[in-house]
Amino acid sequence: MGRIISKAASVLGALLLAAGLLFAAQAVGKQEAYAADTDTTPMYRLYNKWSTEHLFTSSKSEYDKLVKKGWTGEGVAWLAPTSGDPVYRLYNKWSGDHHYTTSKSEYDKCVRNGWKGENVAFYSGGNQPVYRLFNPYVKSFFHHYTAGAAEQQKCIKAGWKDEKVGWYGYASNVYDSSNVEAVGNFVETWGKSLHALGLANDYASKFSGSSSAAEAYPHFWNLVNNFSDHMDYLTDALNMLDKNPALKSIYGSSFNKAGAVYANAAQEFVNVCTSCKTASQAWAARASIMRTYLAAANAFMQWDDIMTANTQSYLDAHK
Fold it and tell me: What is the rounded distance in angstroms from the CA atom of residue 279 to the CA atom of residue 219?
């Protein structure tokens, strides 16, 4: 039984690292959690091959709509805080150009000159510079914005004027194609955790359907061991997430909600199992064992639904 206790502590510790959840508990004691991560929203980048404009939006629906109209979706460019210094967006109905600025006076001046003010588009804050560049050789689409220092330098060498930092955000490696492999490894490990839970389900059914303590006890131990394997793989997956900012950007939000629900349900199951040291004790506690196990399994499946949706959103953005 010590194995499942140690794995319970391990997976809850991984949840702490991966999600910014603080667990005030002893070993497998009662937990209280809160989100410690900065609230951010992804800023999507699109490219119009006909006009050469890059557009930036925090709206996934706007992003998806423009992709359907023929724009090239370039994924997440950076992460913007949900509060901070406002960044305004304007639209020029004559040229089709969009302009972004943190300056309210520049925003008001553009409105007076005929631009359509689209108010606050997102917020500035964080440690990742988003650079602003100006192309003096064109009459429209003359500004470009990038969180990539290499792209900034490439534009400068091509003749763009460096206008330094336009605003700040948080780094997102989601746009980096090298993270496709990291996502694949994460999904594979998560899938192993799901498979182990499926094996635990089989033994949970056998345990529940047993007619005596002697018959039930081997199934109880197989249930416990497979659930421990499930937590092993889950710990590995969460450690991957903790070490990779891109994975945090893709999956992190779900850990503050569904992950916490699962962690609490899993702990209740562990608590019940740790009290069952003999066949008769496991038999007497079979109703509690099944109740807490099913609660943990159902919580994980709901969490898995969210993770699957996040993976699909990432793949859709990087087709």
Answer: 11
